[in-house]
């Protein structure tokens, strides 16, 4: 009798819990230019909660999986990125309009020739800067590592990062465990990958991972990626770097 009562209680608890989960459905809307009211094509739309993405068609229309209270992130070159909270009304009315505001850019002075070139190839090659972001591969591991500037301790730093993960990494990865688990989902969504491959400002990456720019930089520094890589890589390369570092971090912690 007691086992039957416990079974009924567990079933009711599970039923109540499942009813609390938000229902995922398809939401449809239109993205327009706030200044001209014209529909905007190829705007990237990312559901930060479900970790799925899409782009608008030539009429500015899009559809995406979402639940009430999910956050949609809109991004388009030359326009201010925007976050919209999903409401019940957005499911009821398919023609919900989202307006993006155009940014005004002030062009700064650009130095075209920072290096004095003579026109003689042999001389100019010697004067050009050399990228010191050396890559190191370690037997048994399928990925390479950057050791920063070439120096006697570079390989030691790489090995140290792999064998003895820093407390800072543990704090950073532990601070947002749910976001870290979404890394694989981000990498598997083609629309999100395409968006990140075209961006260098870390803005979309910060929204997806719920980390600030300094946290991202600290992770890469402690995974021994070079300053050159951190400052010049696109957001997709940064995502792959963080993902690789996190996977190794999990393996090493499992062995402890």
UniProtKB/TrEMBL annotation:
<dbReference type="InterPro" id="IPR008969">
    <property type="entry name" value="CarboxyPept-like_regulatory"/>
</dbReference>
<protein>
    <submittedName>
        <fullName>Carboxypeptidase-like regulatory domain-containing protein</fullName>
    </submittedName>
</protein>
<dbReference type="Pfam" id="PF13715">
    <property type="entry name" value="CarbopepD_reg_2"/>
</dbReference>
């Amino acid at each position: 009798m007691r086992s039957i009562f416990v079974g009924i209680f567990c079933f009711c608890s599970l039923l109540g819990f499942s009813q609390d989960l938000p229902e995922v459905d398809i939401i449809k809307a239109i993205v327009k230019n706030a200044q001209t009211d014209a529909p905007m094509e190829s705007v990237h739309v990312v559901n930060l909660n479900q970790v799925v993405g899409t782009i608008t068609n030539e009429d500015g229309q899009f559809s995406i999986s979402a639940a009430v209270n999910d956050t949609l992130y809109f991004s388009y070159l030359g326009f201010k990125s925007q976050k919209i909270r999903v409401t019940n009304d957005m499911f009821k009315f398919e023609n919900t309009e989202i307006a993006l505001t155009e940014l005004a850019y002030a062009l700064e002075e650009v130095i075209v020739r920072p290096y004095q070139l003579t026109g003689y190839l042999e001389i100019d090659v010697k004067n050009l800067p050399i990228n010191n972001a050396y890559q190191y591969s370690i037997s048994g591991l399928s990925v390479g590592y950057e050791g920063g500037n070439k120096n006697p301790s570079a390989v030691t730093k790489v090995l140290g990062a792999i064998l003895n993960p820093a407390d800072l990494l543990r704090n950073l990865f532990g601070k947002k465990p749910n976001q870290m688990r979404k890394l694989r989902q981000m990498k598997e969504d083609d629309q999100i990958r395409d968006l990140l491959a075209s961006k260098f400002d870390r803005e979309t990456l910060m929204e997806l991972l719920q980390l600030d720019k300094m946290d991202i930089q600290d992770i890469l520094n402690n995974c021994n990626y070079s300053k050159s890589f951190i400052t010049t890589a696109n957001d997709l390369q940064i995502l792959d770097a963080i993902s690789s570092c996190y996977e190794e971090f999990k393996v090493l912690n499992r062995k402890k």
